[in-house]
Structure formats: C-alpha cells, structure tokens
Amino acid sequence: MILMIFLSRLIKLYLLIVFPLIGFAQKINREALVNRHTIVVKSLDTLSSLTVGNGSFAFTVDATGLQTFPDYYANGIPLGTQSDWGWHSFPNKENYNIEEGFKEMESHGRKVIYTPQFSEPNRKRDAVNFLRQNPHRIHLGNIGFELYKKDGTKADVSDIIQINQILNLWTGEISSQFIFDGQPVHVKTICHQQKDLIGVSVDSPLLKTNQLLIRIRIPFPTDKFLDSGNNWTNTDKHNSIITKQGEKRVVVQHRINDLNYVIGFSSSLNVQSQIKQPHYFTIQPSTSATNWSFTCDFSEKANNSVPLNFAAVVTNSQQGWNKFWNSGGAVDFSGSTDKRAKELERRIILSQYLTKVQGTTNTPPQETGLTYNSWFGKPHLEMHWWHGVHFALWGRIELLEKSLDWYKIALPTARKIAKRQGFRGARWQKMTDNKGGETSSSVGSYLIWQQPHIITFAELCYREKPTRQTLEKYSELIFETANFMASYAFFDTQKGKYILGKGLIPAQERFKPEDTYNPSYELNYWYWALNTAQNWRKRLGLKPEKSWQEVIDKLSPLPVKDEVYLATESAQDSYTNPLFLTDHPSVLGTLGMLPETPMIDKGIMKNTFEKVWNVWHWEDTWGWDFPMVAMTATRLGMPKYALDGLLMNIRTNTYLNNGHNFQDQRLRLYMPGNGGLLTAVALMCAGYDDCKEVNPGFPTDGTWKVKWEGLKKFF
Fold first, then answer.
1. How far is residue 548's CA from residue 561's CA, in Å, rounded to a whole number?
2. What's the rounded mean pLDDT across residues 181-205?
C-alpha cells in the first residue's frame, strides 16, 4: 500500500515537472470566466459603444441597442458599420499616379526612390494626398431607431432614461433596456458569424402607438483622417433607392462611384417604408404588435436566397461564440490577492472578444478595427504583428491565417517597390489597402520593421502545422522577403560589416531617415528572420542561400554605449536627447518581441531595460508599448516589472468599459493595444523556447494564482 502511494505521488511529481505549462489538473470553467466580465452600460456614454460582429463585419451600437444617435457618438466610439469588402475611391479626375510622389534620397552613393508626403501646394502634394485618401473603407449604413413622443416631437438623447445595457460575451448578444416617453423598450442585437448580417428583436408598447420606427441612413465618406460615419452632406454625389418593397422585405440599393451594394431588411411583421430624404429611409410595422424582430444584411450583390429570421441568427451567434470561447487559450486569475488581477483578467477577456470581432478579416486590419476609419481606413503592415501574433499564441492560428493570403495579392506591388529602389525581392508596403496598393507617407515610406513580419507569421503557422503543405504555401513570400532584406543591407568595407541604413526610420519614429542607421531592434530582427528563412530552405531540402548567409555572418553588432544598447548606432545621444525618450521604446523589442539570439548580451539588455524604465517619457507612448515592456521583462526574468509595465497607469494604457484601448481624443480606440496585451500575457504564462519556468511573467510570492490552458510557447 505504501509503495502504491509512493508510486502515485512520484507519477504526479513527474507530470508536474515534465508538463508544468499545460495547466495540469486546472481545468478552467470558461463560461464562468467569460461571464465574470459581462459588460454593463448604464448611460448614453459615448466611450461605451458596444459592437457585434464576426471579424469581417462589425456593427457598433449606442445604449439603445442600435445606431440611434450617430452624431452624439461621433467624437466617442463611433457607431460604425463596416465590412472587409466595403472599399471606395473618389474619381481620379486628375489622373494622379504614385510616380508623381517619387522623391530621391542619396544612399551609399546612389539614388533610392521613396514616396514621402509633400506640404507645398502643388500638383505633387495633391497627388500624394489623393493616393493617401483612396481607396478608403466606408461606413455601409446607419441602422437606428426613430423615436417620437406622443406630441410628435423627435427623441433627444436626454429622453432616453433608465438605461440597462448588457453585452453577453459568451453568446455575442447585446441586450438593451431603456425608458422612452414613459414606456419600456427592450432590444436584443446580434450578428451572424459568417454573414454581414445583424438580427434585432424589439419589445415595446411604443410599437402599437407608431412611436418607434427603424431608420436606415447612408452617410457619405469623408476625405479626412478620421471618418465617424455621420457625414450627411454631399447627398447629390451618391445614389440610394428602394429596389424591392414586399410585405416583410425592403431592399435598399446604394451606389457610390464604382461601389454598388444592397441593404436587405427582413421583418417578422408586415412593414411599410418611406423615403424621408435622400439616403434616409424609415420602416415601421403595418400591423399592431408589441414585439417585432428583423434582420438586416449587407451584400455586394442582391441576395435572392430566403432571408434568415432573428431566431436563426441567435442560434448561429450562440454556436459561433460557444466554439470560439471553448477553443484556444484561457487564463484565470481567480484566487489572486494582487488587486490588479481582476482588471488584467477583464482586459484579457474583452481583448479576445474585440480582436475576434474587429480584426479577423481577409486583409490586415486597420488600427481602429471595423468601428471607425483612421488613416482613411487603411491597414498598416508594421501593426499587423500586434494585430495577429496573439492568435497563434492563443491556439487560434486559423484567425491569423485568414489575413495571410493577402500578402500574395500584395506581392506584385512589393516587388515593384524593391525593384524601383534597386533591391531584390519584395519590399512590403507600410500603409496600404485591400489590394496591396502603395501609399505615400513621410514616415511609412522609410520604415523597415514590417519587412520580416511575414516570416514571423509563417514560422508560427509552421510550428502549429509542420507540414510540407505549410512550407510550400509560404515559401515564396519568405524567400522574396529575405531577398530584399539581404540586398537592403549595405556592406561597409571599412567596418567589414553589413549595416542597415541610412535611409530608414526605425520603429521608434523619432529619427530622420537621412541620418539614421543600424537600429538595435531592426538589426536583431534581420538576423533572426534571415536565419529563419534559411531554416525554411533546409526544411524544403534546398541549399542555404549564400547572399543571406553573407549578411547573417557579417551583420553589424547591436550598438552599445556605456553598457546599454542604443536606439540606433547613429544616435549616440539615445538617452540624453529628450526627443529620443518619447514614442515607442522599441530598443526593448530587441529582446521581447524577438527571441534571444547570438546578437544579444542579456546583461547589456537588462541594463538597457533599467535605463529605459527610469528615463522614458511614458506619457508620450502608444498602447502596444506596455505589452512590449512586459515581454522584455519576462524574457529577462523580471516578472514584477512585467506586470508593472503591462498595467502602467498611463492614459494610452487605458482600457475603457467596453475593453477598447483609449489613446487620446484622436484615437479613442486602438486595436494594437488589445492584441499586444494578449501576446504579452501568452508569453508571461506559457513562456518561450528554452524557458524552464512556470508562468515566467508572474511573481512567485503567492499574490498571483495563475491558471491557464491552450496557450502556446513563443519563439
């Protein structure tokens, strides 16, 4: 008996040693975990807008459960309706082209052509601005309530009282209750998980008195940096008509230049529609009832299939979200005594919901997701790392892979850029669009840290699916990426080393391209990515590429001064110039976002972390900087700093009631912050290659009880 007990304990001890990172005997009640963070809204708070969606389509609502007050919410989290296919361009009447934005820069004795912006008022400036603005993602349509008091006056925001709105994260359903004109209104809002379609149910006595109608209103896109979806001007520049009016079906067709799509409204009751103004329609039941449900679908083409009803959308959403939450990773901090544990758990749950809803499109997501347009709705490839890496680490590789086929669409343009600049391979665009177009940018044209991202993504895919098929799927992208990287590096005969630059701006966007060379983060990224590309050749049975190996073997070392890594070799005043102590402290990404390589001395890296921690102007940073700090601290064995960095009390590290990462009045939501937080937490829990510690990003003093499952190690 004693021997059996001894053997049983020995087996348990062995399992805990060999499999410490799988949450042994710690099965998490995922539904209870998610439901602990149900979102509740009690007022018309413009920063508490809620979104339903499926990753390729999103619909954001105010406290009424629909998009009733778009103008009121325009300066908060706007009430957007966006899809991955909803792109539009204003007519190019002046025949502008990218060549008009070319500008030569001297680099190592030759001219390299970039596409910056221009401030002087001339055709060159106008051409560049037009190409930045077009194409742009658009808001497809505003679906809201039209509410009238008994005296016939229209509702104002102050008339909506006793609000109680709940987002059930487990099912993806928003339940909204409020009182208007003395009568209760209960609304349920939900989104189909495969179609661009919402379902809505309304219960209210106001239906019987014809005080509650549905409004469909279609805005005109702006040519501004931000588009909140409430531009009701320019009504003569687009066209909206009702193409079908049946007893229970109304179809609105919208045409704006080369974009043509339909909005299909399907009702549980007989309805009648009215055109109030151009692009402004109302729909109301023609039969007396206190309950009304409908669906509204957005499609590039008229849909002749049988419309789905509300119940079918509810079932679909419940099934889709149940599958999402029961797959992939989960992290549970219950039992922790650190007062920050509940808030971190909330941010983790809400960030999973938001990144799924806002950022799993067939293209790299835009920084403000599918809620409102920043930078004209265009995605930024350097941010794709922050949007996408976490999906792989949370066991949801398929959500990352959705956007990777886009790189094949963008490859021809990337090749053209490289060739134009005198390099081999493909140079990936920074600010781009759904078809991989090139956009002028005074910063983006000189960035290079987006270049190796596709190698990161492909390597994550291979770790999950180490097959010949995976190798063949991504090998062309990897090889063309590596070809550019090797040819971009310049061999300095005096130093006997390859250098990066001049003619670049690093991830910390505080340096002039004319002067900058050898940024630390980019150097290590070049080293890691080129080695990874060589490994892909080996896996495919190919010989190493000599030009890549030449750069690997002779790449410049990371620049050091006073036993601290510099931001760039060209900035010997990296820690004394106040300008260089703002923006992204990307020197930390050298070991954090990236794994340890022979390029790195961990002692110097620790000195660098401590220097940055003490002197950085943290108030002038971005949402993903804090997860980056946490990842570096984790890899350096400094878990206290990992948590303090991840939860630093700085405005740009604010996570609103709805989970959005608030930056400032210009960017009220910022999806790279949410994605970065999930990446950091995965690393803090599951660790990285060769990491022997359990939960390396959390203190071992007993204040944190960390249970997790389904997470993957990072590189």
1. 28
2. 98
pLDDT given at position 120 = 82
pLDDT-derived band of residue 22, with 50, 70 and 90 as boundaries? very low
Closest CA to 437 of 681, 197, 686, 101: 101
Mean pLDDT of 297-322: 93
**Cα–Cα distance between 302 and 283 in angstroms, integer?**
19
DSSP bridge pairs for 285: 271
CB atoms within 10 A of CB 669: 29
> Residue 190 forms beta bridges with which residues?
199
pLDDT, residue 474, reads 98
Walk across the sheet containing 57-61 and list its strands. 50-53, 57-61, 81-83
Beta bridge partners of 214: 145, 283
What span, in angstroms and rounded, lies between the C-alpha atoms of 390 and 343?
19
The token pair at 462 is 């291979």
Q: How far apart are CA 587 and CA 521, in angstroms?
A: 5
Q: Say if CB 385 and CB 456 are below 8 A apart.
A: yes
pLDDT tens, 577-594?
999 999 999 999 999 999
For residue 517, which amino acid is it?
Y
Measured CA angle at 479 (ends 555, 551), to 5 deg: 10
- N-terminal to C-terminal alpha carbon distance within the chain: 45
Inter-helix orientation angle 468-488/406-420, to 10°: 20
Q: Provide the pLDDT for residue 320.
A: 98
**Structure tokens belonging to residue 59:** 């619909």
Asked whether the predicted pLDDT for residue 443 surpasses 90, the reply is: yes
Give mean pLDDT, residues 420-428. 97
Q: Give the pairing of strands 50-53 and 57-61.
A: antiparallel
Nearest to 440 by CA among 15, 127, 31, 79: 127
Structure tokens, 309? 């009803």
17 confidence band (pLDDT: 50, 70, 90): very low
Bond preceding residue 502 cis, omega within 30 of 0: yes
CA distance 591 to 405: 29
The tokens for 361 are: 């499109």
Contact partners, residue 326, CB within 8 Å, separation at least 6? 30
